[in-house]
Prior knowledge:
Blueprint: H1 2-23, E1 26-41, E2 61-70, E3 76-81, H2 96-105, E4 115-121, E5 133-139, H3 150-211
Amino acid sequence: MRYLKWTVLGTLALLVFAFLHYTLPQTDIVRIVGTDTKRMDLGENSWFWASPDVGTAPGTSRDVYFINAIYPDGSTMEYRNEDTGWGWPPYFKMDSSSTNTEAKELTSTAAAPKWVAVRHYGWRNELFTIFPNAISLWPVESPDVRIIPWVNIVILSFLAFVLFMAWRMWAQFKERMIEPAVIEAQETFDDIDRRADRARAGVSGWFRRVFGRK
């Protein structure tokens, strides 16, 4: 049971970590090399795509803005640029067209690079055709600039506080309600066992007195 308990807890912790890692904002320092608009037919991976742009009709096939970028080490990255609207995650992004224009303005070459901070959420997975969604972008001085994730710090600190309070409440509930009930139940069972032992002893004595006489 102990191994089962830790397996379940470990699985839950992994799921929570994956959810937070996908949903919370991350910031990349990249060089934008181009933008594109592609017609995407969404299938099993539609969970990893935002809803259609605000004001457009829903559907599984639509045009999606893309931002093509290169990291300082030369590796590539592709971001989708979609509205999140009023849905999840709650970024309330409704300016994908403006973001596309900004990305075009910040396009640069290797000879004259313009470094850009791209704030996004989500993952990049080539196997399942999944792209992170760019939320905002702005120019930075160099690829070595440090971006402090204040939003993540605040959210994770709040979640840690909530978990701590929930653990304290459970500990107090267990101490005040569950443990006394368990002790009382154990005492009741012990009392029943003692009565049963006395009853068995009484029956055995009666049989000895009745059938033990000559």
